[in-house]
Amino acid sequence: MELRDIEIFLILAEELHFGRAAQRLHVSQARVSQAIKLQERHLGGTLFDRSNRRQIHLTPLGRQLHNDLQPAYAGLRDSLERARLAARGIIGVLRVGMLPGNAHDLRPCWDTFRTRHPHWRLQIRHNPYVDAFTPLRNGDIDVLVAWLPIEEPDLTVGPQIFTESMVMLVPPGHRLAGHDSVSVEDLGDYTVPQVPGMPEYWEEGFAPFQTPRGRRIERDTTFHTALDDVFTLVGTGESISLLGAHAARYHARPDIVYLPLRNSWTLRWALVWRSDTENDLIRALAQTVRDLGPRDAPRSETVRRGQRAGRSSQSA
Q1: Cα within 13 Å of Cα(262), Cβ side
Q2: Domains in the chain: ranges and CATH
Q3: Which entry of 28, 127, 164, 170 is 20 to 30 Å from 137 by CA?
């Protein structure tokens, strides 16, 4: 079985749909189908149950082959990538997952690391909010930029990389949209979206369950995949939400007004990694962040523009 045929089989086993697999592989659907049929003839058995025209399923033989091939293919792919990098003088790669969307604000950290360690490659990637620690635990990333506190026994919390205040997100027609700022106590009048599967203590660090006077801040609408879900919920008037203030700088939208929270808690972001995978690259990035110190996220002019937009909407 050729390496490309293995890739086709593994992608199809993930997607369980010939069309989607073909799109990911950038080939025709006929090419995927042909490769799978050839593999089945060579093995002498069926890999996929095609009785359902909308979605196929792995057969027992297909599941066995997938379980055997997946780790071997991943190891081979990683070996080839390391060889390509070594040919360019790069002997290591450090993959950083970002929960916040302000990687640009942290350029001094990234640039300093790259200057100090030109033989290592630094990759910055988006990290999902849902099951946020899974990419760390699966080995898809090496370091995560996440808010504190983090109390996971298998994870090490490193230095803080930046801090910021919080903002409330409301649609332009909302009764609070014309205010210069809002109080944390105002949260007791509304519900905020909930991230499924998030540890309660960690959710509390981002959005408390009670106001300072003890009023419960209800959770209601759940968002499922990405930050865009929050914007949709707020923009359509289904919910308000809370985010770190950097969101106002990076996500200016006509359907969202960002309001500073008075006397709110400070959101502290830090490096986090799996304790059993700590290595020289991780320690070097942590030292870089310690040397530079935590950065304060700049105040956003987008917040003030959003406030004026809210007033205009109310007066129209």
Answers
A1: 7
A2: 3-87 (1.10.10.10), 92-162+272-295 (3.40.190.10), 164-267+299-315 (3.40.190.10)
A3: 164
